[in-house]
Design brief:
about 400 residues, 7-stranded parallel beta sheet, 5-stranded parallel beta sheet
Length: about 400
């Protein structure tokens, strides 16, 4: 009579060199797992490999770790029992036959991105509000910066205390950003598709990097929910100073934020951060809202001689007569890569980075940690974490 787990064949397909130390760790911990690594380099087009993966490579695999490469058809993976993605979402593979025509469990690396992305959110938000581009330009010019107009800007910098962060999609990333925002003195409000009316429903049941996030859902001072425009507009009308977009991309969230939503956020000239997917925001509407604010402020706050018109001794209050949004930080765009002639590049007060906010030295190891948690749960017959609900798209 044989004992122990059954033999497994883990196929790993990733766009970089084999993570040798991680794979060796898995071999030691799980000696019954055979590992095959295949490197698939990407083109500039997101998620697209430079060449096709040979279909026969999937034939004997029982486990698959991948970013986007999947078997061409269900017939190419007759033994496959679990697919783990190194991304937080799966919208990029939603049209694959393996996604649409099988019930093979799919798990994501949701939960690992919070620490790094929260730091990116903090970096870009403060770089904008503290006029870092101006400060850096002074240093490059070896200038002590005595220009009175610019000094007027800096005297009117608002810190985070008492401002309100609205988190549109309170998942693992939103929870870590909320945790950091609260530490800086902000109020945090959360929006989710489904109601979270009980303490248990507010908990994070996915993968959590120790010491991060909001495991029990205690950070928000208020929770909002819904799936229609009225519910979303009610949330956006809650005096939000900074909106974090962290919902998954689905058919329902495509262009979720358009002209109407920008107008609601203009009530307090909010700052928008998008770390999810570019298609969630209607980019022309965003550009128009950024230009409206910039045009108004530029014409209103300068004297005829070019000096800054704000009184440095005056209390800073939200001016509800100013239209538009004061700024944006986008790690995602539509499309990607963003064409050189796209007007978004020149939108005022807009920071754009090339989908790198999650990158960091711990990324790959944490991806495999989620997989290892599920491998052990699978052995014990327990429920897996980070499982994709195909009907919802995340």
């Amino acid at each position: 009579m044989g004992g122990g787990p059954k033999p497994e064949h883990l196929l790993v397909i990733l766009p970089f060199n084999a993570p040798s130390k991680i794979l060796e760790r898995i071999r030691r911990k799980y000696p019954y797992v055979k590992i095959t690594f295949h490197q698939l380099l990407f083109t500039e087009t997101p998620w697209k490999g430079r060449e096709s993966v040979p279909p026969e490579i999937f034939h004997d695999a029982t486990l698959l770790i991948t970013l986007s490469a999947l078997p061409p058809t269900p017939q190419d993976c007759p033994k496959l029992e679990l697919i783990h993605f190194t991304s937080a979402g799966t919208n990029h593979v939603a049209n694959s036959p393996v996604y649409t025509d099988t019930t093979i469990p799919l798990t994501t690396s949701s939960g690992i991105h919070g620490p790094q992305i929260a730091e990116w959110v903090l970096l870009t938000t403060l770089a904008s509000s503290h006029y870092y581009a101006l400060l850096e330009s002074w240093q490059r010019k070896h200038s002590w910066g005595k220009d009175q107009r610019c000094l007027g800007l800096l005297r009117n910098v608002n810190d985070r205390v008492g401002q309100r962060l609205g988190v549109l999609g309170y998942g693992s990333i939103g929870r870590q950003v909320g945790r950091v925002a609260k530490a800086m003195g902000m109020d945090v409000i959360a929006y989710t598709a489904n109601p979270r009316g009980t303490p248990e429903s507010k908990k994070d049941h996915g993968f959590i990097v120790p010491g991060t996030g909001d495991p029990d859902g205690e950070v928000p001072i208020a929770w909002y929910s819904g799936t229609d425009k009225a519910d979303l507009h009610h949330f956006l009308g809650q005096d939000i100073d900074h909106l974090l977009v962290s919902v998954p991309l689905t058919k329902q969230t495509m262009h979720l934020l358009g002209k109407e939503e920008m107008e609601l956020l203009s009530k307090r000239n909010a700052f928008i951060t998008n770390i999810s997917r570019g298609q969630i925001i209607d980019q022309p509407a965003l550009i128009a809202a950024l230009r409206a604010f910039d045009d108004h402020v530029s014409s209103k706050d300068l004297h005829a001689d070019g000096s800054f018109a704000i009184d440095p001794e005056a209390d800073i209050k939200v001016d509800t007569t100013i239209p538009g949004l004061r700024g944006a930080a986008l790690d995602v765009t539509d499309p990607e890569p963003l064409p050189p002639d796209d007007p978004l590049w020149d939108a005022p007060n807009c920071i754009i980075t090339p989908h790198i906010s999650a990158q960091g030295s711990a990324y790959v190891d944490r991806c495999f940690q989620v997989f290892e948690v599920n491998l052990e749960r699978r052995e014990r017959g327990e429920k897996l974490i980070n499982v994709v609900d195909r009907s919802k798209g995340y």
